Amino acid sequence: MATLSKNAALRLAGILLFLLLSLILTFMGFYFSWRQVHSPDWTKGVALVLLLPFAAVNQIFHWFTGPQPLSTPVYHAAFLLSSIAQLLYYFTIFTLLKRLVRRVLRSSAKEREGERQ
């Protein structure tokens, strides 16, 4: 029973850490994006990478509605879909990074084991 609650607490901590990190990265992307208005610099690329799902969903909605600003209900729908896509984007990146780190650690452990023999 104690192990189950410990596992649940660890899982909840992991979820909260993921959401917090995703929120921080998204706000950083928004900051770098807004900063381009007054002083364009190298952070334009960083903003694009951090906000790629928002840019993609925005582009898709503008393909259908044209270049004019989105109406309020359409804008809210686009923002909701972009937010969900943003979380999936970061989840995919973090999952791939986690697997990559495991693979590197596993291969380095095998190399050390091979050197000992």
Please describe what this structure looks like.
The protein has 117 residues and is mainly α. It has 2 domains: 1-49; 51-117. The protein has 4 helices and no strands. It has helices at residues 2-38, 43-50, 52-65, 72-116. Helix 1 (2-38) packs across helix 2. The mean pLDDT is 89.
Bin the strand percentage. under 5%
Based on Cα principal axes, name the global outline. elongated
Q: Which structural class matches the secondary elements?
A: mainly alpha
Mean pLDDT: 89
* Rg calculated over all Cα atoms: 20 Å
Largest sheet, described in full? Answer: none
Number of strands: 0
Gap from first CA to last CA: 42 Å
- Uncertain parts: none
Query: How many helical stretches?
Result: 4
The number of domains = 2
Question: Helix-strand pattern, N to C?
Answer: HHHH
- Indicate the percent of residues in helices: over 70%
List the helices and strands and how they pair.
Blueprint: H1 2-38, H2 43-50, H3 52-65, H4 72-116
Key features?
117 residues, mainly alpha
Summarize the structure.
The protein has four helices and no strands.
